[in-house]
Amino acid sequence: MLELKTPYLLFIGHATDPLSIKMAKSAADWSPEKCLGEVRSPGCTVSTGLPAMTIAEGIAAGAKSLVLGFANSGGHLDDQWLPMIHEAIEAGLDIISGLHDRLNAYEELVAAAQRKNVRLLDIRHPTKRLKTGKGYRRDGKRLLTVGTDCSVGKMYTSLSLTREMQQRGMSVTFRATGQSGILVAGEGIAVDCVVADFIAGAIEELAPANAAEHWDIIEGQGSLFHPAFAGVSLGLLHGAQADALVVCHALGRTSMRAIDNRPLPSLAETIALNEQMARVTNPNAKVVGIAVNTSAVSDEEAKTYCRKVESEFGLPCVDPIRHGVASIVDKLEGF
């Protein structure tokens, strides 16, 4: 487990896209007991729903860490945020980052952190020495969430499934594969920072052999259909050796994330390709449910869409946030 000091202050900068603060929003939604408030900059139009605070107010309330809870294309640390980070260091806060750019690559931040005896935590970057994947059969049961696109709800679906299974007394562990999931779980491996040859091996280590009745719920990343992220998605499929797959989809999205004029694949295409690729390491892998982010439509439209999908594919289809995931877990209890 990572030693991440709580409570957190969540820094979201001047974000205007709700998806760009998914790290902060994930912590606020799934670990609210660890969060005090959010730090915003002028021009910010989105929120985690937590109280707005300054660094000084956060310190007075007992904050122990500042979380860089935003993301941008490429995961770069913009120089405009350095004064805020320096302020937090001077106030005695650890800094937690999920960006690709490493805090520890900035000599001035390292020097300041050493002087104030605080830590710079680049949780996106694995520190373990990893091995290549082997694909050998291993005991236990594993479920992997996959998607028609990136940022469609794979982590929220995985956490929803884990919570429902825990409430039923099932043996289950959530396995985080991205910086947001790691912040919630306190451990994991961010696979988009793993050298390509070692992605499958990283997942084999993250979700190793276990008791026969135990489920590992492995957080998916990207999509086999997204040109930027398909390599990570494929490595995850092979390393997970999943028994069950849940397809995640965002209703109403007209083009793949950050790519113009590239329609999302159909659910049928997504199911077929993910099952084919998953069966490279588990011949029995199959899709057991469909999770849809229906936030773009009314609740009645969401229910109508889910009923239509269930009729077409013979699989439970739900919005995990609106409807819960009980119908999908019902199928897992029968495995």
Description:
With 335 residues, this protein is an alpha/beta fold. The protein has two domains: 8-122, NAD(P)-binding Rossmann-like Domain (Rossmann fold, 3-Layer(aba) Sandwich); 141-333, P-loop containing nucleotide triphosphate hydrolases (Rossmann fold, 3-Layer(aba) Sandwich), CATH 3.40.50. 33% of the residues lie in helices and 16% in strands. It has eleven helices and eleven strands. It has helices spanning 22-30, 55-61, 82-90, 107-116, 154-167, 179-185, 199-206, 230-240, 267-278, 299-313, 326-333; strands at residues 8-13, 35-40, 65-68, 94-97, 120-122, 141-147, 172-175, 215-218, 244-250, 286-293, 317-318. The protein has a six-stranded parallel β-sheet with strand order 7-8-6-9-10-11, with helices on both faces. Strands 2-1-3-4-5 form a five-stranded parallel β-sheet, sandwiched between helices. Helix 1 (22-30) runs parallel beside helix 6, helix 3 (82-90) runs parallel beside helix 4 (107-116) and helix 7 packs across helix 8 (230-240). The chain is globular. The mean pLDDT is 96.
List the helices and strands and how they pair.
Blueprint: E1 8-13, H1 22-30, E2 35-40, H2 55-61, E3 65-68, H3 82-90, E4 94-97, H4 107-116, E5 120-122, E6 141-147, H5 154-167, E7 172-175, H6 179-185, H7 199-206, E8 215-218, H8 230-240, E9 244-250, H9 267-278, E10 286-293, H10 299-313, E11 317-318, H11 326-333
Parallel strand pairs: 1-2, 1-3, 3-4, 4-5, 6-8, 6-9, 7-8, 9-10, 10-11
Helix pairs in contact: 1-6, 3-4, 7-8
